[in-house]
């Protein structure tokens, strides 16, 4: 195959950052959540047919050549040791094994995978899973199995690829990235045990009020925050169990508030969600910088909570543009980045939707 011919067969997909709107982190505790896709940031993956199977390192995120030893050390301190190559490899393995286990035959033929991303690192915006999600979409099309792998199952494949690499996470982020738009999710124990996944209900993005995103240029690591709470929950700690049930209920009540366009109620639920998280996890686990991002919004009367486990905050200004101006000034003073949120509509095409309706 000539390079011109293979160029014509290139498959490219994007997956967007996501924000946990209500109910997080109850997705890993048989709870309920509501999340949406953020158009401000995305990862893209490009698959091109090739003679050998090649996972191409990113020129910036998978840097292996440096100007000097101090340059390398500084780079590792700010960016960490891991780029996206390991994520692409992991989803290839999980995808292959899933197809094999489910008797889905894959044609022979190799490809080159490359990626790019503008999702800020360690901001709790699901940058890693965006790369995996976009890669999975490419594999579904390259092997022509999109119609054979149900939409509800795809977030599990993405999560399993990340688990391969020791990434601690739940399903909600991957659901939001697979579905796009605004999604209400029920992870009740019965569904998780009977189906292996939750019940996912897309909602009209027009129900959302204007939202803003606040994040720090030098954020914390989002992978360390769940630790003690998870163990306490497993150990039957009554406070953690009841608090997590209350967090899950916030998403249920929040769904009704949005449907009723009761934005005062919606604002109070956002604040309550963060307050419960803070009570369970404690300030040391959440981090001073992360708490300050929430507080900077609250000081101007806005509602705010984490998008994930820290690093970024989703904010609603119920009083409108004048309150947004106050928030922008406060963020500038505190050194935080603030952006209006662009909510992406659903990504599902006709083939995807057919897999949803089939049992």
Would you write up a description of this structure?
The chain has helices at about 5-10, 70-80, 85-100, 125-140, 155-165, 170-180, 190-195, 225-235, 240-260, 265-280, 285, 290-300, 320-335, 350-355, and strands spanning about 10-20, 30-50, 55, 110-115, 180-185, 200-205, 210-215, 305, 310-315, 335-340. Strands 1, 2, 3, 4, 5 and 6 form a six-stranded mixed β-sheet that branches. It has a four-stranded antiparallel β-sheet with strand order 8-9-7-10. A hairpin with a 5-residue loop joins strand 8 and strand 9. It has about 350 residues and is α+β, with helices and mostly antiparallel strands. Helix 3 crosses helix 4, helix 3 (about 85-100) packs across helix 5 (about 155-165) and helix 9 (about 240-260) packs antiparallel against helix 10. About 40% of the residues are buried. It catalyses: D-glucuronate + ATP = 1-phospho-alpha-D-glucuronate + ADP + H(+).
Termini gap: 39 Å
Most strands sheet = 6 strands, mixed
Unreliable sequence segments: 221-226
Helix and strand run: HEEEHHEHHHEHEEHHHHHEEHEH
Give the helix/strand class.
Answer: alpha+beta
Name the shape in a single word: globular
Helix content percent band: 40-55%
Query: Rg, please?
Result: 21 Å
- For the residues shown, what is the average pLDDT? 91
Family: Belongs to the GHMP kinase family.
Keywords: ATP-binding, Carbohydrate metabolism, Cobalt, Kinase, Magnesium, Manganese, Metal-binding, Nucleotide-binding, Transferase
Function: Sugar-1-kinase with a strict substrate specificity for D-glucuronic acid and ATP. Involved in the biosynthesis of UDP-glucuronic acid (UDP-GlcA), providing nucleotide sugars for cell-wall polymers. May be also involved in a salvage pathway for glucuronic acid.
EC number: 2.7.1.43
């Amino acid at each position: 195959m000539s390079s011109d011919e293979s160029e014509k067969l290139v498959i490219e997909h994007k997956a967007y950052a996501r924000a946990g709107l209500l109910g997080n982190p109850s997705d890993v505790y048989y709870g309920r959540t509501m999340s949406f896709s953020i158009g401000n940031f995305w990862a893209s993956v490009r698959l091109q047919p090739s003679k050998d199977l090649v996972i191409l390192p990113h020129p910036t995120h998978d840097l292996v050549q440096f100007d000097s030893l101090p340059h390398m050390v500084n780079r590792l301190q700010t960016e960490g040791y891991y780029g996206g190559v390991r994520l692409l490899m992991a989803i290839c393995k999980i995808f292959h094994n899933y197809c094999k286990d489910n008797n889905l035959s894959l044609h022979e033929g190799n490809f080159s995978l490359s990626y790019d991303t503008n999702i800020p690192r360690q901001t709790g915006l699901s940058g890693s899973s965006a790369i995996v999600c976009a890669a999975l979409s490419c594999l579904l099309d390259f092997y022509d199995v999109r119609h054979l792998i149900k939409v509800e199952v795809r977030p599990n494949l993405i999560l399993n690829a990340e688990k391969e690499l020791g990434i601690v996470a739940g399903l909600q982020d991957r659901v939001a990235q697979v579905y796009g738009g605004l999604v209400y999710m029920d992870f009740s124990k019965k569904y998780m045990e009977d189906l292996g996944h939750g019940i996912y209900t897309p909602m009209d993005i027009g129900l959302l009020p204007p939202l803003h995103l606040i994040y720090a240029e030098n954020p914390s690591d989002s992978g360390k925050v769940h630790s003690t709470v998870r163990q306490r929950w497993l150990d039957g700690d009554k406070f953690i169990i009841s608090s997590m049930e209350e967090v899950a209920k916030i998403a249920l009540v929040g769904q009704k508030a949005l449907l009723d366009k009761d934005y005062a109620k919606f604002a109070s639920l956002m604040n309550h969600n963060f307050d419960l998280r803070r009570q369970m996890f404690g300030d040391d686990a959440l981090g001073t910088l992360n708490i300050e991002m929430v507080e900077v919004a609250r000081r101007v009367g806005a509602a705010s909570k984490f998008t994930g486990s820290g690093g970024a905050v989703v904010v609603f200004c119920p009083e409108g543009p004048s309150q947004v101006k106050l928030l922008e000034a406060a963020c500038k003073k505190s050194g935080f980045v603030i952006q209006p949120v662009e909510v992406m509509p659903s990504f599902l095409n006709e083939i995807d939707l057919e897999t949803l309706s089939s049992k």
